[in-house]
């Protein structure tokens, strides 16, 4: 289909084509017919100029409406466009560039560097490997995750557990599926605001009841209110050395939540609880609303970049028939 501007050009040149046809005797008409045709061409030109004026006016009105909401923007990150791999023992998705998946358009967002949605087969996992200068946290969705590290920590994490390792100057750890069931978890990395920190380890637990139809704050900056920054275990969010706050919810069908995003950007992700799916997203469905006319519908595995001029209110509504497990990042 031709763009409307090209269509206007073709229509506007029609009188010229007909004039040439007359000039070169391609078309011959009786004098009275020529007068009628001339009148019709003048009328057509007049109507064309009027249509162009009305279109420009409508375009200006539309631009003004968009301009009113220019302070808020939502950019979808469809599930099937994420990097993904099936290694047999590991089925994984990468929201940002990771391992063999590299995409300069999706390499980092604020302090957020990695969101990997991993499914690890029973009695398999990531062997001992090292990290430096990252804040690494694991959000367990299903199954059990066995964690061991060079600081002497050994723990079996289950659904609702959140484990955070501040790698700092360097740690080594392993993560494996514990027991006879697959473990499904999200591994998230952020960049710390301070380098060469002393490595630390934290665990927190958030039950389904604590997340149902509310935004549970599960990770927050070390200096934020209510954060126990020196407690390996305890109540409240895990302390992170990054300008990042993470909320989680189990949003039931028909329910709506609002949250003020204090930073200039954010990211939202719908956990793929319905199973590993590399095609277009299905399952639990939410509508994300940033401002009037600025909204997007997301399903399991989908995410979206959120942009605000300064800060803003975000509304999330479950518009499907299944409970949606949703993670929301507030970023500077």
Automatic annotation (TrEMBL):
Gene3D superfamilies according to UniProt: Jelly Rolls
Residue stretches spanning the membrane: 7-24
Domain Pirin N-terminal residues, every copy: 80-189
Entry keyword Transmembrane helix: yes
Keywords of this entry: Membrane, Transmembrane, Transmembrane helix
Cited InterPro entries: Pirin, Pirin_N_dom, RmlC-like_jellyroll, RmlC_Cupin_sf
Pfam families per UniProt: Pirin
UniProt-listed PANTHER family: QUERCETIN 2,3-DIOXYGENASE
Family: Belongs to the pirin family.
The protein's name in its UniProt record: RmlC-like cupin
Native organism: Mycena venus
Organism placement in taxonomy: Eukaryota, Fungi, Dikarya, Basidiomycota, Agaricomycotina
């Amino acid at each position: 289909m031709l763009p409307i501007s090209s269509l206007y050009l073709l229509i506007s040149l029609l009188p010229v084509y007909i004039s040439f046809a007359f000039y070169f005797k391609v078309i011959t008409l009786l004098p009275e017919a020529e007068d009628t045709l001339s009148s019709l061409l003048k009328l057509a030109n007049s109507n064309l100029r009027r249509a162009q004026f009305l279109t420009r006016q409508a375009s200006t009105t539309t631009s003004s409406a968009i301009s009113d909401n220019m302070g808020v923007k939502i950019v979808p990150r469809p599930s099937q466009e994420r990097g993904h791999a099936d290694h047999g023992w590991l089925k994984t998705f990468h929201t940002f560039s990771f391992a063999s998946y590299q995409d300069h358009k999706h390499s980092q967002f604020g302090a957020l560097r990695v969101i990997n949605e991993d499914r690890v087969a029973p009695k398999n996992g990531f062997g001992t490997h090292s990290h430096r200068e990252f804040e690494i946290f694991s959000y367990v969705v299903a199954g059990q995750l066995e964690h061991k590290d060079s600081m002497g920590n050994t723990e079996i994490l289950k659904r609702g557990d959140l484990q955070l390792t501040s790698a700092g100057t360097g740690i080594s750890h392993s993560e494996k599926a514990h027991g006879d069931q697959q473990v499904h978890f999200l591994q998230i990395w952020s960049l710390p605001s301070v380098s060469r920190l002393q490595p630390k380890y934290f665990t927190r637990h958030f039950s389904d009841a604590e997340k149902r139809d509310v935004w549970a704050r599960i990770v927050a900056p070390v200096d934020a209110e209510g954060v126990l920054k020196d407690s390996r275990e305890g109540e409240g969010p895990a302390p992170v050395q990054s300008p990042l706050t993470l909320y989680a919810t189990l949003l039931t069908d028909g329910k709506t939540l609002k949250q003020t995003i204090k930073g200039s950007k954010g990211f939202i992700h719908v956990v793929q609880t319905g199973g590993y799916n590399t095609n277009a997203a299905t399952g639990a469905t939410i509508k994300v609303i940033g401002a009037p006319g600025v909204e997007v519908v997301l399903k399991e595995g989908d995410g979206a970049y959120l942009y605000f001029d300064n800060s803003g209110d975000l509304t999330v509504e479950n518009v499907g028939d299944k409970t949606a497990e949703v993670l929301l990042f507030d970023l500077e």
